[in-house]
C-alpha cells in the first residue's frame, strides 16, 4: 500500500514539475498552468470515485487529490498575473542629499511600468521623447512573475522581510538613538526602502557633528538595528546614476562587492568604490577620504 501511495505522489510531482517548467520558460500562460492543475484534481477525483471500493487505490488517489489541491492553492495567485506590466523600465533620478551640504548622496532608481508590448527600441524612443532618462528596460517574463508571487506569499506568512520606507526610517532612528524631524519626514521618490538606510544613518551622524565631510560621496546600502550594512539591488543602474551625476566616490555594501566589481569593469565606470560592512566603518572611510583630500590640496 505504501509503495502504491509513494508511486502516485511521485507521478503527481512529475506532472506538476512538467507544468511548472513549461510555465517558467514561457511555453504556457499562467491560466493554462492552473487549468491543467485543476484538470489533474478532477481526473484524480474521478479515479478516486471509480476505485472507491479498492482500499489501496482509494488511499493513493486520496493522497494525490490532497497534494494537487495544496499545489493548486499555492499557485493560485498566478491567476492575477495578468495585471503585471509588459516591461519594467529603470530611469535616472538625481542622487539626493538628505542634509544639505553634507555631501552624502542617497542613490535611488526610478521605475516605470510599461504596459504596451512594443520593442525595447521603441520603448526607449518613446520615453526619451517624453524626457525620461532610461537606464534599462527589462521584459517581464513568467519567471519574474513567479518569483514575485513567491516573495509575496513568504511575506504574508512572515517568512520573508519586506522593507518599507517607514521600517527603514525606524531602523535608522533605533541606530542613531533619537528621533529627528528630517528623518521622520524623509520620503524621497525612488530612494525609498531599505537601500537608503546607510546614507540616512551617515547623514544623521554628520548632522549631529560626529564627523565632517567636504567631498561628494554617493551612498547605497541598507542597515539593521546594529548598524550592519545589508545587501541591496539595482547595482548596475545605481552605478550608471553615479556616473551620470559625476560623483567620483561611492560607498557600497561589502556584500555587493563581487557584483559591483564585475559591473564596474563591464561598464568601464570611473567611480572609486569603497565597500563597507557597518556604519562605523563607513564613517571611518569618509574621514580617511577627507584627510587624503585635504592633504592633496
From TrEMBL:
Q: Which Pfam families match?
A: Lon_C (PF05362)
What keywords were assigned to this record? Answer: Hydrolase, Membrane, Protease, Transmembrane, Transmembrane helix
Q: Does the keyword Ribonucleoprotein apply?
A: no
Record SUPFAM superfamilies: Ribosomal protein S5 domain 2-like
Q: Which residues cross the membrane?
A: 5-25, 31-52, 61-80
Tell me the domain of life. Bacteria
Keyword Transmembrane helix attributed: yes
Ranges of residues in domain Lon proteolytic: 193-282
GO biological process terms, alphabetically, are: proteolysis
GO molecular function ontology, one term from the record: peptidase activity
In short, the EC number is: 3.4.21.-
Task: Give the protein name, as stated in the record.
Answer: S16 family serine protease
